[in-house]
Amino acid sequence: MLAAATRPGLGSWSLDPVVIVLIAVAAFYRLGNQRTAYAALRAGARRWRAACFYGALVVLALALDSPLEAYSERLFWVHMVQHVLLITVVAPLIVLARPWTPLWRSLPLDARRSLARAPSRSAVLGGVWAFGRWLGRPAPAFVFFTIVLLGWHVPALFDATLRSLPLHALEHLLFVFSAVLLFKQVIDSRPLHARLGEVQRVLYVTAAMLVTWALAVALAIVPHPLYGYYAHEVSRPGGISALTDQQIAAGIMWVPGSVTFMVIIFVYIHRWLAPSQHEPAGLVAATRAPRLTGNQFRGSAQP
Q: How far is CA 196 from CA 134, 176, 181, 204, in A?
C-alpha cells in the first residue's frame, strides 16, 4: 500500500503486511473448513465455496500488493480499478463463499466460548453486538454502503488517504465490509439471513448500482480534476491529462463497476422467465430468495 516505486512495472511486488494477513486468513479458513461437518453439502458445492473464498483473497492481493498498487500512486483510473475490485469482486465472492462457520471453527474451543459469552457479560460489547445486528439489516446496510462509497471519494478525504497509510487501509477495509453487508442482502450466505424477497432484491441491487453510477457521473461531468494529489502529478504514465485520467476512472466505475450488479439482476430475471428449469450450483443457487406469499416475505432457510 502507498507504493514508493517511482517507475512501477510488472516487478512492483512486495511482501506487504496485507499479504501476510491474507495468507494467515487462508490458513485459518482451511483449518476451520476441515473442522466443519457438511453432512448435506455435496463435495462440488463445498469446493465451489472454497474456490470463492480463496479467489477473494487472491483478488485482494492483486488489488493491494501488485503493480496495480504501484500504478495507483500515479493514475487515478488505476486507483478506481482497485476500488471496483474490492467492492464488486472481493465482497460478493466472500458472500458466495459463506466462510463464517469455517472461520469461527478455526478458533480454539475456549476462545469461541469466551467470544460467544462476551456480549452478555459486557454492556459495551452487548451494545456493539446489537449495533452490528442492526447494521446488517437491508436499509442500514444500504445507507452505510452509500456513505462509505461516496464519503471516501470526497476530494479532501480521498487525498488524505493517499498521504496516510492507516487511513488508506481503513478506506479499503470499509469498502469491503460495507459491500459484504450490501451483497449479503441479495445473496444468501448462511448463517447470515437475507430478509428480502426476490422483487425487493432486484430493486435493492438496482438502487445500489445507481449509487455507483452517481459517483461515475460526477467524476465524468466535472470540468476540472477533483483530486489535487493526481492533478499535481508531473509525469503521468501514458501522457494523459489529469482530467482524462479522471474521466477514464468514471468509465471504469460506470461499466466494469456495474457488471456484478447486472449479473445478479439477470440471474433473477432468468429465474422468473424459466422457473421450472433446474438451477445450477453457483451464483444462481446462492442467490435463491424466498418466494412471495401474499404480503409476507419468508426469511432464508435456517442453517
A: 15, 21, 13, 9
Nearest to 153 by CA among 217, 107, 204: 217
Burial class (CB in 10 A: 0-12, 13-18, 19+), 127: exposed
pLDDT in tens, 251-294: 999 999 999 999 999 998 888 887 655 454 455 555 555 444 43
CB 204 within 8 A of CB 142: yes
Enumerate the β-bridge partners of residue 192. Answer: 189
Return the amino acid letter for 77.
W
Question: Are the CB atoms for 160 and 167 separated by under 8 Å?
Answer: yes
* Residue 111 cell numbers, joined: 476462545
Give the mean model confidence (pLDDT) for residues 187-211.
91
Q: How far is CA 124 from the centre of its chain?
A: 28
Compute the residue count for the chain. Answer: 303
Q: How far apart are CA 180 and CA 302, in angstroms?
A: 20
Burial per residue of 232-250, b for 16 or more beta-carbon CB atoms within 10 angstroms, e otherwise? ebeeeeeeeebeebbbbbb
Taken in order 109, 115, 118, 120, the sign of the CA dihedral is negative
SS (H, E, C) 137-162: CHHHHHHHHHHHHHHCCCHHHHHHHC
**pLDDT reported for residue 296:** 40
Instruction: Tell me the three cell numbers of residue 129.
Output: 453486538
Percent helix, strand, coil in the chain, to 5, is: 70, 0, 30
